[in-house]
Specification:
3-stranded antiparallel sheet; 5 helices; flat; 6 strands; alpha+beta
Amino acid sequence: KKYSDNHKEFYDFKKRLNESPDSLYIMSFTNNSHSQALSHYGNISIGMNNQEIQNCFGKAGAHGKDSLYDYGYNDFYAFPLKVNYDYDYQYNMIDNLVRRWLVAYRNLEVDPFDMKSILNDLNSELFLLSLLFKRNVLYQEEEIRYVILRRNIHSSDKNVIIPFNSSLFNNVIYSHELKHDSQKIRELLNNNGFNNISLNLTSLPY
């Protein structure tokens, strides 16, 4: 309402806000292996190397292709995002985007070709920000997201297969709630071929 009292403008902007690609996948990680948010995610964290994950996703998405320009049906792009929790930063970014969106929207009849192009670009920008921003109260998650976006956005096949192997995993950290189950965790790791992964209790005092 700060920007417009026009119900159609509000409705059309909200409609675009809810648009997203059909074949979008997000895998979430944290930059802090001893995060206090650990208890909300199974009380276990699995240590992985960010660059190795990126390489793994990139190789899986390319299906043998050497260039992004050659990507076609069922290929996918993968890129990392570090989640932003800062309210002021988020507000300034969104405020700027909304103002530009309204200028383009209100000039559709004057220059429909260019304004539609600008609105499409702003929609992509808005979509990216929706993946990047989270509320400040969740800052302890220190989340890193890997976004996977497939080319065939209208495909009925929603599966994305990414081969993981033991070389991607460095260590496993468990919370105090699981300290009496450490032997069971070790056995589970060994039984699945992860014999060389270190297993440690979190450094958090509780």
